[in-house]
Amino acid sequence: MRAKEFEKRKNKGANALYIAACCLFLILTLGPFVWAFIVSVTPEYEMFTNTLKMLPGEMTWGNYVELLDMESRYSLRFTQGMLNSVKAVAITLIIGLPVAVLTAYALSAMKFKGRAFIKYGLLITMVIPVFATIIPLFRIYSTHRLLDKSFWLSLVYVSSFLPMNTWLMSNYFASIPRELYEAARVDGCGYMTCFFKVILPVSYPIIAASALIMFLSSWGQYQIPLILASSAATKPVSIVTSEFMTKDTIFYGVTAAGGLLAILPPALMALLFRKYLINGMMQGSVKG
User: Fold this and answer.
1) Are 266 and 215 in contact (CB under 8 A)?
2) Residues 253, 48: contact at Cβ < 8 Å?
3) From CA 173, how far away is CA 100, in angstroms rounded?
4) Handedness of CA 164, 165, 169, 170 (dihedral sign)
5) How far apart are alpha carbons 154 and 190 in whole angstroms?
6) Is residue 11 predicted with pLDDT exceeding 50?
7) What pLDDT was estimated at residue 176?
8) Per-residue pLDDT tens for 188-238?
9) In this predicted model, what pLDDT tens digit does every residue of 143-168 receive, in sequence order?
């Protein structure tokens, strides 16, 4: 009986610890978004009042109206920033996803000298910080007049996200039973025919996961476009929302509202394709 009571108390303690950890996690992750929403619906004159109240005395949706009103100067800048982000993400996916898929397939299915060196070299590049290469990149782009161009900005994104996505995909392709490859080769399929007719149809989870990773990573970029895309025609929404200010004033409400609206597209994509993200990353990381 004592053993059962001890086990029961132990389970209760573990459950209480689990609940406390979940609550702490929710506070740390959702807290900034809740605070940003409170700021976005708080009138400007209430933000600087000396009070202990967290909630505003009256809520205003004027900041959201300001951003969604097409005749507003904030709306024009915000809309242009959203379009720039969509354009950069589209170019990144169009270029980066096929390159990652084909590279991963070559590293996992073909035998050639230096294959292991290339694969582990890609893994090493993941730990190189952005600021270790951004200054040389700026120098190159400035010399060749490539600054403030969405295509060349997206190429930097592709080079940044390619190693991780290639690594995940190559591990996934390596986990596919070799019998599928051998059966296709017996039927007379070459490497590319085998890829398009056999491997690609069963690889949609990892491809969808990689596409989602590229989308989320490209959309949330701040440091790279801050240096390589300084004009209104190319700067993404992450930069635009941080510039809602004048010489003397920072408009915190508009900035918070813009930040919340800017995270809606990646949040919706993550919710819609979360199953593929989890399955793809789990299956793409179990085998090296």
Assistant:
1) yes
2) no
3) 12
4) negative
5) 33
6) yes
7) 81
8) 777 788 888 888 888 888 888 889 889 988 998 888 998 998 888 899 998
9) 999 999 999 999 999 988 888 889 88
The answer to whether the pTM exceeds 0.70 is: yes
Indicate the length of the chain as a whole number.
Answer: 288
pLDDT digits (tens, 9 = 90+) for 96-119: 999 999 999 888 887 788 888 888
Strand partners, 245: 250
Question: 């951003």: which residue's tokens?
Answer: 67
- DSSP output for the chain: -HHHHHHHHHHHHHHHHHHHHHHHHHHHHHHHHHHHHHHHTS-HHHHTS----SS-SS---HHHHHHH-TTSHHHHHHHHHHHHHHHHHHHHHHHHHHHHHHHHHHHHH---TTHHHHHHHHHHHTTS-GGGTHHHHHHHHHHTT-TT-HHHHHHHHHHHHHHHHHHHHHHHHHHS-HHHHHHHHHTT--HHHHIIIIIGGG-HHHHHHHHHHHHHHHHT--HHHHHH--STTT--HHHHGGG-B-SS-B-HHHHHHHHHHHTHHHHHHHHHTHHHHHHHHHHTSS--
Q: How far is CA 161 from CA 64, 95, 141, 166, in A?
A: 33, 11, 19, 9
DSSP lists the bridge partners of residue 250 as 245
Give the per-residue pLDDT at 271. 83
Say whether pLDDT at 288 is over 50.
no
Return all residues near 224 (Cβ < 8 A) that are at least 6 apart. 130, 134, 153, 156, 157, 160
* pLDDT, the chain, mean: 83
Please answer whether residues 137 and 156 qualify as being in contact, where contact means their C-beta atoms are separated by less than 8 angstroms: yes
